[in-house]
From TrEMBL:
This is G domain-containing protein. Residues 26-126 form the G domain. It comes from Panaeolus cyanescens. One of its GO terms (molecular function) is GTP binding.
Length: 366
């Protein structure tokens, strides 16, 4: 039976070249901060730091990254041991990137490299509760249409649960049971459910514990079920980002009457980031061209995209006008105050110019 075989001291290294035809590919998936990169760091072994694990709510891995296993190979037959590659991916439920964009990044990589042999899906055991944002990516994974014999659900963060803290231990055990129940059908059909203890021995045992499945996924994300899930998540992202942008805009307008340079800078940076996210979401939405099969609702993709761009442009124009009115409304100028408002006015003009150009480009392209 083909299997993954340890042939010496195990390590791992980044791989930048084209994958060999006879390679064995393991895809790591999960939400941001779930432990994918920590798993790779553990495989590297003590004393070797790859610098890819961040331990934050922002994904360190923004692109698909490939690593080659050292001294773990795919034993196809006697004396025929082929190279094994571990593929790290951007996290789902990331604050800065929609799941649609994450799926498409992975999809593009899979299409280029033809197949995936095993999938490891990572789940934190320390989450306060299994929320909708956690289950959304799980539903995406379930929608991929993979052979479940090639799926391993890896529970993580066990090393952060204090042994002497009975409440934390009970909570972790409860989460473990809940996750096992969520993945019950997949486990009954061949998927594995394991604990990763954040050390090399644990990582190696997860890799080599069972026979090696081949071609678990060959058509990543190219099905109606996955398209529907990421489309719905994208609409939710746009709605949430739009509401947050409005909130930031209102807060920033209030600073005109109560100057606060530091707060203005923070709010402006936040608005720029949310505008970047909205622009990215609009691009992802337009890529659908039409609503996916099974979508329950009356949605015009072009109208939503246009409204997003229009809102960004009009709110930028409104803020610029507010600053201008405030700046030129006093008969007796005060140098410090006017200098502050002039800087804001200049920034507002630049912001409006960018928003206007985005809107103009959108109108020309659509």
């Amino acid at each position: 039976m083909p299997r993954l075989l340890q042939t010496g001291d195990v390590s791992i290294k980044p791989f930048k070249d084209t994958l060999p035809d006879e390679s064995y590919i393991i895809l790591l998936l999960g939400v941001t901060g779930c432990g994918k990169s920590s798993f790779i760091e553990a495989l590297a072994g003590p004393g070797q730091k790859l610098g890819i694990s961040g331990g934050t709510l922002h994904s360190v891995t923004q692109k698909v990254a490939v690593f080659q296993m050292i001294n773990i190979g795919y034993e196809w037959s006697y004396e025929d041991i082929r190279p094994v590659y571990v593929v790290d991916t951007p996290g789902f439920s990331d604050n800065r990137q929609s799941d649609a964009k994450t799926v498409r990044k992975i999809q593009a990589w899979v299409e280029k490299n033809s197949r995936i042999d095993l999938v490891f899906y990572f789940c934190r055991i320390t989450d306060k509760r299994i929320t909708r944002s956690t289950q959304g990516p799980i539903q995406i994974i379930k929608s991929l249409g993979m052979w479940y014999d090639g799926l391993t659900i890896v529970t993580t963060m066990w090393d952060t649960v204090p042994m002497q803290n009975h409440e934390a231990q009970a909570h972790a055990a409860s989460n473990f049971a809940q996750l096992h129940d969520i993945w019950k059908d997949e486990v009954e059909n061949g998927a594995r459910f394991v604990k990763f203890l954040n050390n090399q021995l644990s990582a190696i045992s997860i890799l080599t514990f069972r026979e090696a499945w081949r071609h678990c996924v060959s058509n990543f994300g190219n099905n109606p079920a996955t398209a529907l899930l990421i489309f719905e998540e994208l609409l939710q992202r746009i709605q949430k980002a739009h509401g947050y942008r409005q909130f930031l805009q209102e807060d920033r307008s209030q600073i005109l009457t109560d100057p606060n340079r530091a707060l203005f800078y923070i709010l402006t940076c936040s608005l720029r980031e949310i505008d970047r996210q909205l622009a990215s979401h609009v691009d992802q939405l337009l890529a659908f061209r039409h609503t996916p099969q099974g979508f329950d609702g009356d949605v015009n993709i072009q109208s939503i995209a246009y409204q997003c761009v229009l809102d960004m442009t009009s709110s930028s124009k409104e803020f610029m006008d507010q600053v201008g009115n405030e700046l030129f409304s006093y008969r007796h100028p005060r140098r410090s105050r006017d200098s502050y408002l002039y800087c804001i006015f200049k920034a507002a003009k630049e912001e409006f110019s960018k928003a206007y150009n985005i809107g103009r480009e959108f109108a020309l392209c659509n």
